[in-house]
Specification:
The strands form five sheets. Strands 1-11-12-13-16-10-9-4 form an eight-stranded mixed beta sheet. The chain has a three-stranded antiparallel beta sheet with strand order 5-7-6. A three-stranded mixed beta sheet has the order 8-14-15, with no helix packed on it. Helix 3 packs antiparallel against helix 4 (69-104), helix 5 packs across helix 12 and helix 7 (172-190) crosses helix 13. It starts with a helix and ends with a strand. It contains 13 helices and 19 strands. It has helices spanning 4-9, 11-20, 26-65, 69-104, 143-149, 155-161, 172-190, 204-210, 235-239, 297-314, 361-366, 391-401, 412-418; strands at 125-130, 153-154, 168-169, 194-196, 201-202, 222-223, 228-230, 246-248, 254-263, 282-292, 319-323, 335-343, 348-357, 369-371, 378-380, 382-390, 403-404, 407-409, 422-423. By secondary structure, it is α+β, with helices and mostly antiparallel strands. Strand 12 (335-343) and strand 13 (348-357) form a beta hairpin.
Length: 424
């Protein structure tokens, strides 16, 4: 979340930058400042009460020793009254601090100065394009038809077992999934990321730490009895490993990668544009996460973008990289690059990765601090993450772009993981 210092010292700037995300921040920013003023005033009253109690306490003994019993008893009563006032003030302070925090966590992150203006996906800026869009043979099919033809993904069985958006992978389809996961993890660990296997459920603190709560509460599956949440991405548990941690600057960069199933309710995910693997409620994804010094986080973002781009090149997929406009950015991001691969059979681009710098936004929520060598002052770290990569639309593009009359060709980079070079 944004710090109170940033909000108080740059109120107009904060409201102006939030408008780039099409978030009207005037009312909530004014409320934050008013609650902070109230908090400070209550704290001052408490401090003054305590100082007065201490001062009176010193007088009471002296008054008794001088035989001024009535004055001493009056002083004792005044101290008791001050203590009661302090209890009331302490309760009020606690309530004000709670309301202040609940208000602060509803304020989005400020977009970086390079974020383009715009309302939605049509206003995103294309950074670069790679790979070649294939020309398919006559009778080429979308992946949901190929999945049925080669009996590798069963969407109807998933509906029977759970519901729409929960496919069942079979035979070579299951092996292709496993191959992609192993390929991504091997590539990430070779690039210096430590592999993590985190829990698939998190508590509320973790959800608040990375900003999924309260912003994405309606999109998360909630396990009510234990008040846990099924993770929407490995970003949540992996980033929270460093919640409430004080680092040394020499520890940067900290690089982690994790494979997990991901769970998203995705309200409104119905219709022809989300057929097959295009949008699911459960899907597999390999994530990369970095913690970095604020001075180096944007260089790190470019490095992460290059890494994800390298994965798509090795998979021989046509891709494009977009810098998201303000209206298409997430609640938590300061700058995001989206990766899309081209689906030749569907003749459209499919998003497969978002790679973002959150600056200090998540770290401030998580109380992730660091110190420079020999410096007592703590600073807020920067956090970054990206999909490397999400599997469903990668699989869709591999199936569609590599189909031939004889079967589906498996990209060379995956063949050693699959144990086969064709799906037929």
């Amino acid at each position: 979340m944004l710090t109170l210092k940033v909000i108080r010292e740059n109120k107009d700037f904060v409201i102006e930058r939030l408008a780039v995300k099409h978030f009207d921040g005037k009312e909530i920013i004014e409320k934050v400042i008013a609650l902070d003023d109230e908090r400070k005033a209550i704290q001052l009253q408490l401090d003054n009460n305590l100082a007065e109690q201490n001062s009176i306490a010193k007088q009471i003994g002296k008054l008794f020793s001088e035989g001024k019993t009535e004055e001493a008893n009056s002083a004792k009563q005044k101290t008791a009254d001050l203590k009661e006032q302090s209890k009331v003030l302490s309760q009020k302070l606690s309530e004000t601090e709670k309301e202040l925090n609940l208000t602060l966590v509803k304020v989005p992150n400020l977009p970086h100065k390079s974020v383009p203006l715009g309302h939605g996906a049509n206003d995103n800026v294309e950074v670069r394009v790679g790979g070649s869009i294939p020309t398919l043979h006559d009778g080429a099919q979308p992946h949901w038809e190929l999945a049925k033809k080669y009996d590798i993904i069963d969407f109807e069985l998933g509906v029977k077992l759970t519901g729409a958006g929960f496919p069942v992978y079979k035979g070579k389809g299951a092996k292709l999934q496993r191959a992609l996961i192993n390929f991504f993890l091997d590539e990430n660990t070779s690039a210096g990321y430590q592999e993590i296997q985190p829990p698939l459920m998190v508590n509320e603190d973790s959800g608040y730490g990375t900003g999924q709560l309260p912003d994405k509460d309606s999109q998360m599956y909630h396990v009510g009895l234990d008040n846990f949440y099924l993770i929407p991405t490995a970003e949540v548990p992996v980033t929270n490993i460093y919640r409430d941690v004080l680092l040394n600057a020499s520890q940067f960069p900290i690089k982690m990668t994790a494979y997990t199933p991901c769970f998203r309710r995705e309200a409104g995910s119905y219709g022809k544009d989300v057929r097959g693997l295009n949008r699911l409620h459960q899907f597999d994804k390999v994530e990369i996460v970095q913690f970095q010094h604020p001075d180096k986080s944007y260089d790190t973002l470019e490095e992460m973008v290059s890494h994800v781009e390298g994965l798509l090149k090795k998979l021989e997929l046509p891709y494009r990289i977009l810098r998201l406009c303000g209206g298409d950015m997430s609640f938590t991001s300061a700058l995001t690059y989206d990766f899309e691969v081209y689906s030749a059979a569907q003749q459209k681009w499919l998003e497969v990765s978002s790679t973002s710098n959150f600056e200090s936004f998540q770290a401030n929520r998580m109380m992730l601090r660091f110190k420079e060598e020999g410096d007592k002052k703590t600073q807020i770290a920067h956090t970054l993450n990206g999909s490397a990569l999400a599997l469903p639309r990668i699989v869709a593009s591999i199936l569609e772009n590599n189909q031939t009359p004889e079967g589906i060709r498996v990209p060379k980079a995956l063949q050693k993981f699959c144990g086969f070079d064709m799906i037929d």
